[in-house]
Amino acid sequence: MRRTVALRVLAALATTATGAAVCVAVMTPQASAAVGSATGFATRNGGTTGGAGGQTVRATTGTQIHAALCNRASSSTPITIQVEGTINHGNTTKVSGSSCNTAADVIELKQISNVTILGVGNGATFDQIGIHIREASNIIIQNVTVRNVKKSGSPTSNGGDAIGMEANVRNVWVDHVTLEASGGESQGFDGLFDMKNNTQYVTLSYSILRNSGRGGLIGSSESDLSNGFVTFHHNLYENIDSRAPLLRGGVAHIFNSHFSRINESGINSRAGAQAKVENNYFQNAKDVLGTFYTDQAGYWQVSGNIFDNVTWSSRSGDTNPAGPNPTSNTSVSIPYSYRLDPANCVPDIVRQTAGANKGIRTSNGSCTPTNPTSNPTTPTPGPTTPTPGPTSPTPTPSQPSGTNLSIGAGSDGSSKASGTSYGDVRDGNMSTAWSPSGSTGQISIKWDTATRVSRVNIREASGAVGNVRSWRLLNHDTGAVLATGSTAGVITFPATSLRKITFDITSSSGTPRIAEFETYAN
Known about the structure:
By secondary structure, the chain is mainly beta. 5% of the residues lie in helices and 43% in strands.
């Protein structure tokens, strides 16, 4: 019976394109469509699982990729397409079917959902062929190289974008890919990673973008402001002229990335965009952050970044760099947990992990690469729960012992409700409490000199216990994440000397009320 079913599937996947039969090897369903799971905005809005739970198909040509999409039961039937070899114009033709809308000379992921494209074996290279994602959702692209895609000259593909997304795209995770060109617009190339016309909930992670005039953008013009919620982490931007990336409106989170040889401008936040930029390493570069080529300002929150041999233009006209001493001009709330490597190890950890054919290794949050599990892990359906921060908090029912270091210290916060005081969190009185003005906010304990802390106790006021739903504990001096969690209480972490420690409430049920923010050395 199984042999009969397999033969029927193989027959269904044999289709005709330009007069040649296309046969795609069918494999058994896999536990997961990708290695590991996403971190960042791709975990929101229901999560990004790609082809998890569906059939796995092997393809060695672009036509076979299209055939696999077109012969699914429906345009939303989950599928993982394992790709090996070189995909180019000569082997990529249009295939027709009820579950696809493909075109020649481009890998077309249009009006479909629940798909993973995964490079395997000796690697997958899309040579002068771009990947176009349009009116699609829940897409994963992992461990592939896309190179030299042109918009002018010959041959052309995908408007010159290595990976381009447009028109109502949702939930895309691009991971461990290498995107590269051989010049700028005058040589026929455009962007490496572009998002426009209502593209949201995207993560680009552990990837290399290099040797291009344009790294990528969010929004095609100052009026295309329907895009956003994009995370960029552990990426290498190398030898890029500009758009590393360009942000028009929306929210972006950029962390633990290495920017090397940014020749004209880097993170260009404009037209009201908000970027959280933390623990990145900028090296041998120019104007790596600011608002450029427009009078419509954007905004940023910066912390923990290293600027190594970075030059800054003078402010004038439509040139408004954030440097030479970048400071925050907004506050950006991040609704998910994530690991932060210290910025000083970012070049090394990115060198070891980013790009295709690196073994799909990731960082453990302590500057050490980790290998994937022998079998791909199954992404959690719905919103993906990212791996906790550098150390998992250890709530216990018992109160910490020793001296509460918060008593007599200073305190401040990002906002407060009427009638509350920052000092209420360090007065030893459970009947007084601090609240943010909304459902999220930050409260800190600070000292005049560096103080060694290894445990805190966040005590919610009576009637508000359980209101805090997710949080991060930050070393405010460096921006490092000490711990993350979903319930307030006792939190332990490796002993750290700091002058300011911050409890960052990232989501809550109702208005949080923090009665005491206790800190302890032991």
